[in-house]
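Comment thread on ticket #2218

A.B. wrote:
> Attaching the input chain for the structure job we discussed in standup.
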Amino acid sequence: QVQLVESGGGLVQAGDSLRLSCAASGRSFITFPMAWFRQAPGKERELIAVINWNGGSTFYVDSVKGRFTVSRDHARDTVYLQMNNLKPEDTAVYSCAASHRYNVPTYLPKGQDEYDYWGQGTQVTVSS
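C.D. wrote:
> Ran it. Output below, let me know if you need it in another format.
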């Protein structure tokens, strides 16, 4: 069974840091671009960061640039999201996703419908 499992969420105060992890099982995702999305209460799910297969190319939405960093460890088949200087508006359920349909090493899918595998999500709550 193919799975992506997120961990690392929690309740923190504004200005704190968290590192989310997304571990793959059931198949290898090391050649896939992967992304982090989040969904705040009452809002649509939004893309926040994408990383290509080898980590050489990344994308961030403007609201997290300079604060969040996406990375991956092929040996662990795990993708990370380091979140620094967290703000109350970062409160959301964070999910990772993997896309297996593209054979372009530098391509960074940005549409939700471009992703084929999803984790169940982990809650991040930032208090002011």
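A.B. wrote:
> Thanks. Noting for the ticket: Residues 5 and 23 are 5 Å apart (CA to CA).
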